[in-house]
Design a protein that fits this description.
Elements (H helix, E strand, L loop, with lengths): L4 E4 L9 H8 L5 H9 L4 E2 L2 E2 L11 E4 L16 H9 L1 E4 L3 E6 L15 H4 L11 E2 L8 E7 L2 H12 L4 E9 L6 E10 L10 E4 L7 E13 L3 E8 L6 H8 L26 E10 L2 E7 L4 H10 L8 H7 L1
Amino acid sequence: MSGVQNLEVTRDEADIRLDRWFKRRFPHVPFGMVAKLARKGQVRVDGGRAKPDDRLQPGQIVRVPPLPDPGETKPELSLSREDAAFARSLVIYQDKELIALNKPPGLAVQGGSKITHHVDRLLDAFGRGEERPRLVHRLDKDTSGVLIVAKTAQSAKRLAKLFQGRDLKKTYWAICLGVPVPKAGEVKGFIKKAVGDHADREQMVGAAHGEEGAQYALTRYAVAEEAGRRVSWVVLRPETGRTHQLRVHMAATGNAILGDGKYTCDVPVPEGLSRKLHLHARKLEIPRPGQKPLIIEAPMPEHMNQTFDALGFDPRADLIFVEEALT
């Protein structure tokens, strides 16, 4: 086992994710181990804690804790034919730059503690080495919908920057408890990860401007349909991309997303509806130089289709008025 190393990020490694930097430098170390070391604070960038999806810049110093030697780690299992076929079944669009997947609810995007079945592992179905697609953004485990992976390092860099900015439009569909007032508007403010001995490390809470760890978050929303005052179909457009942002913001309005056990409200859940999370990444509009934006839509998962049917909502409805309210 090697000792602690402090390694400088090179120019060739500009804008690469921390976990992929590890994969280049230490190919025998699995992604799950990198995530675990980062969570424990053993991996640091310029002396500060870091996350696996943080992007590195030339000149930064990465603290690498003691790592097992190549022969000491168990080789990652190759995909079974069933897993490879499953991965390919998720594809809803692809071109020379990217692959779009319709991620089902319950499938994590990346591995972690006790998570061995995830999208990042399934990407082996599309190639190995430099041919292997690269993650450029994330969805929560229980959120379904459009997930983009890049086919090349160059496209990964371009797409990652788009997801960090506001030129790429993200549209989500949610079933919310009650009906937001007003029926169209925005939710904004600062949020941060909960802290404390008993805090859920994945829980986000409200924060004050300037508070340590606070990040600004802005969501636009519009009600598409409602079933009395019990539930509503809400179209959401996050202008920023914070952890659990949409779930936090809808709970803050008093209209939590149906099936969300982490961010709740006082509105009772109607009987007979699925208790799975009703949040779906419906559409991405991706800018392309010299061309019209690429629009990718993902069909809803079965439990949301059943809820739409039960409530009489029409997913094929003309939502022009909603689009106008969101711009």
